[in-house]
Amino acid sequence: MSQVKNYIYIVLMLFSLSVSSQKTIDEDPEIQQNNINYRIEQAQVELEKYNYYDAQKHLDEALKLAEKSDNKRSIGIIYAIKGKLQLIIEEEDNAIKSLNKAIEMQRIINDNKNLGKSYKIFGDVYLTKKDYYQALDSYKAAKSKFQEEGLNEDLAEVLLCEGRTYMSLKNYGKARDIIEQALAQARKGDYKKTQSDALINHGTIYNKLGDFEKALTFANEGLEIAKENNFKNILSKGFLVVSNIYKAIEDFRLSREYLFKHLKLSDSIRTLTRVNSSKDQETQYLLNEANEKNIEIVEKLEKAEDDKNLGTLISILSVALITILSLLTLSLYKNNNIRLKTNNMLHKKNGELIIAKEKAELASKTKANFLSTVTHELRTPLYAVTGLSNMLLDENPRPEQIQHLKSLKFSGDYLLTFINDILQINKIEANKVDIEPESFNLKKKINNIVLALNNSAQDNNIKIHFEYDSDLPENFIADQLKISQILINLIGNSIKFTKDGDIWIRVYKIEEKSNVYTLRFEVEDNGIGISQEKQDNMFESFSQGSIQINRKYGGTGLGLSIVKGLIDILKGKIYVKSELEKGTTFYFEIPLEYTSVEEAKENKLAYFDGDVSELDLTNVKILVVEDNKINQMITKKILTKMSLKCDIVDNGEEAVEMIKANKYDIILMDIHMPGISGMEATKKVRAFDKELTIFALTAVTIEDKMHEFDEAGFTDIIPKPFKQEEFEKKLYNALAANNDRSATA
């Protein structure tokens, strides 16, 4: 007896090990992914063969495996293919539901490649439903993703779909242009199917436009490719298109001939589709399954015939169980139908909202690029305004002209400040502001800001008080330029709205974790205050207290919006409390990392502070690379006034050749020029001259990144429009450095 127990124990152990081993193999991520991929591939194969129900089965199996392993990427792909299948079998509402699930999953994991494909299928669904403008939105969203990911074949296909949509809208001119792009892309990548389809669609378009010769040429070329590659659907459509063209030119014999070919091929495709239709196969499959279960039950009952009581009991239980399961199935079926109907509208709306969000994001990006272009284009003529006003003031104007010129200079400077503010808020909104942490002395930095703003404060009879927590260290690692800008904006704001009063600046610690201090900065004044109504939206762009305040105190309303954006970038928060006629307190909290390293000393001189007469300017030669004729003239006059000679060229290619042929001390290089840009020209120069001083003379835009100027090899940047005295000092500084190098050598 004990021996039997041992055998049983061994068998159980072996069974347990087998199950454990099987479970380990099944849970291997690579094997799971292979199983999912295999079923997805099989589904695609069955889809091509018109075996829709078999395709559906493979997708359902793949979905179970993907959901079990929480494989979000595969889940998104499976739902997208389901949507495509449901579109083919004319279940558009179910297709929308599946595609919404696919898009939701793909957006979570940023699967842009497959997200574009889902948008494309969404467009196909809306095109089938004759919702043409929704279809166009979906195709444009897909096109954007394919361009980002460099998916040229998918891009060609979605361009073709976009063109077909314009054909449905009878906008044949637009359709021709779009399909021409699709055809060019397909020919470039040798994508035969898209190429064939595009050519046949071109045939339809030129037929509608009345150019029958081109229509036949394109359609016949498309037919040849379809025949060679056995593209049955495209071939069938091509026969119909050619038939319609011959009908239009009244060649009825050939029209009938191609129409007969179309009908014959179309009938064979339709028959094949009907034989393999999802509903018929599903019904047959369920009947077969039910028959197999019935046969099983009969066999079990026959085996239990020896024990009649047990057989009877099994029969009763089986019947009861089948009845209960049938009722449950019917109930679930009805509930599922109700749920599907009520959710269809929600899924459709969800899809529309996703498309709307994509459109909003595109609009925001377009706005950012537009503002960037506008600010750049404004800064270029401003260079002329500020440059000419400075030159005229230096040329002994008549006494009655001096005030006018000073007003012109003031207006130019004010406009430049406004443009700079727009550029900064644009960069913040476009997430193109980089954090540049460095060690610095916080207390010293704020003291310098207070000293810089003290003259403005004294003009309004204001006293500034600075309180720095005595227990707080002074050296931190952070982006000191952004902190300075925040404080300058807030203190400047308080100065502007306070007369005969006080401003208090306080800094103290509110939290400390390891080396990270969360500091609170307060800027309090006893000025005019802000109403509660205006406090609600004061951090929005172009928002001010009122029109009267705007007229009296000036400003653009961008300062506080910039402050809010910079504090968000520094992972902080800003608050305001204020009362009319009593004053305002702005306070913000940001994390700063403590460091024992003192502030780095700046070795490089920003401006020349020596005696210009000590510099030998006799043989100094400067090359100005600038395409704007007015800017050329102004820069040349400034250099002449500085006793410096210069050559002028208006493009990058000529600049490189001039530098190779001549010896220059300094190059003033514009960035945005026709032909090669200043960046590319500088890179070419650096290939043969590493030491030459090259200044980037540019109106910086949102697209410009400072590190790119360093990588290109520029010595420094002079933003346009510049202040003349700063420009002169930078040039003198560079010339002094060149002299030192020559002396050392």
Please give a structural write-up.
- The radius of gyration is 38 Å and the shape is extended.
- The chain is an alpha/beta fold and 745 residues long.
- The protein folds into five domains: 26-150, Tetratricopeptide repeat domain (Serine Threonine Protein Phosphatase 5, Tetratricopeptide repeat, Alpha Horseshoe); 163-278, Serine Threonine Protein Phosphatase 5, Tetratricopeptide repeat, CATH 1.25.40.10; 313-432, Orthogonal Bundle (Helix Hairpins), CATH 1.10.287.130; 438-594, Histidine kinase-like ATPase, C-terminal domain (Heat Shock Protein 90); 621-743, Rossmann fold.
- The protein has helices at 2-26, 29-48, 52-68, 72-88, 92-108, 112-128, 132-149, 152-168, 172-189, 192-209, 212-229, 232-248, 252-275, 278-303, 308-394, 399-429, 442-459, 480-496, 532-535, 547-553, 559-569, 629-641, 652-661, 678-686, 706-712, 724-744, and strands at residues 438-441, 463-468, 475-478, 502-513, 516-525, 573-579, 583-594, 621-625, 645-649, 666-669, 693-698, 716-719.
- Helix 8 runs antiparallel to helix 9 and helix 23 (652-661) packs parallel to helix 24 (678-686).
- The protein has 26 helices and twelve strands.
- It starts with a helix and ends with a helix.
- The strands form two sheets. Strands 1, 2, 3, 4, 5, 6 and 7 form a seven-stranded mixed sheet that branches.
